[in-house]
Design goal:
The radius of gyration is 26 Å and the shape is flat. The protein has 356 residues and is α+β, with helices and mostly antiparallel strands.
Amino acid sequence: MLDRFHDIDDKLADLEGRLSDPSLINNQQEYQKVVKEHAHLSRLSELLESHRDLAQQIEGNRTLLQDDKEDPEIRELAELEIEELTSRMQELENDIQVFLLPKDPNDDKNIFLEIRAGTGGDEAALFVGDLFRMYSRYAESMSWRVEIMSSSPLGIGGFKEIIAMISGDQVYSKLKFESGVHRVQRVPETEAQGRVHTSAVTVAILPEADEVDVDIDMNELKIDVYRSSGPGGQSVNTTDSAVRITHLPTGLVVTCQDEKSQHKNKAKALTVLRARLLDQLEQEQHDQISQDRKSQVGSGDRSERIRTYNFPQGRLTDHRINLTLYKLEGIMDGKLEEVIVPLTLCDQEEKLKRIQ
């Protein structure tokens, strides 16, 4: 597996030469591409160097074992060290395999987080707010930026739906497994008899689309403007600043009213529309692939129930990988890594199975 990387030092030297070329700096898109490739190969070079070091240490210990005149205690220590080094090498080879897995082209992208109330009425709307706080606190812990693009708040404190853009390093790679139906089981504050109710909300994680990803023909858009309104119909402002964009070929509709400027609302709505169109294209491709093979962490179907939050028991269950954690309070406070890491590892294991 490792023999094919004999020329990695030459490739790194070539990339370093390109990075020092003044003409490349003027082409920021190409420059960033080379920077990423250089970082990727540098990390791979470090892993391969560690592998070579371990191989040399193992070989050195084996040479000691072949010397019959060597002290028995030294030979015993050499055997123990070979066992430990071999175990470390196996782990390192697995890390290298994972590192070499085909990268999701969207992993480096920012995302649009869309959370909508499903079954359960007001309780579902309240849970939309709870999930948004959970993702916002996780984003804060990762030094990401959260910007609300559109929201439909209810007077009770929840949301019928909320759409936010989360930007930062590796956002999509961390949150891409969050799409699906999230079920909540708890006693609503309005429940006098203490009965547990079950509600559901849907979460969609859409990678931000560049203009080169999706070409929108402005002639295929119907753009309506109207006055923004807040909870209970109260007027947010007295000008027609809210924007509704309908993509006529697909019927997709995006509204935005959180900004006081019609121009800003239109720009935000277009970015959301572009992301939804890209997602629709990718879903169609995904559906074709999933007819032959389904991923262990889920089919990618937005209607799939992926997770249950049971508040009376303090339990979170992710149904795709049979993960159960009795740490619900901490997770709702933004400590999502304990869910994200097992999902990522499971996805990596499935990908490794396919190439072995």
